[in-house]
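I had to read the description of the data format several times before I understood it. The format is easy to grasp once an entry is in front of the reader. For illustration, here is how one protein appears when written out as sequence plus structure tokens:
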Amino acid sequence: MERKKIFLITQSLLCALVAGLLAGIALYLYFEGAAKQAGGDLFYYSFTREKAGRALLIVLPVFAVSLGLTIAGLVLGIRDENADKPVRDPHGMRDAGALREKAVHQKATSKVITLRVAVLVLAAALIVAGILNGGLEDVLAKGAAICTECIGLG
């Protein structure tokens, strides 16, 4: 198997592992909070910054390796060339007009991808800034107040 294909498979598996770990952590925090509340501690906060931070430390090494591989793949230009090709060509050849149209489409697509990456980086930076600013606690407190006062869940 080619090194490039092994790289892409490894990167995909690491991304899936990170997603699975994050889902597992979310379920762990939920069930831990539900068990404490079922035990009679109605004011137990299962989603605190400290608990989430400790739980995310488990995922951090895998996420760092996955992010490093993604950045390395972007820098080295490693990508699957067959991803844009059709599965089968019914006529056995392509016309020049379709190839020209595809080249124009690829240029526009690369601009869209660049814009998406920029928006993703900006969003991640703003989320981290909000967490460091204490916004997580504010949102949790306001959410609890809305549920207990307006909707009557409490």
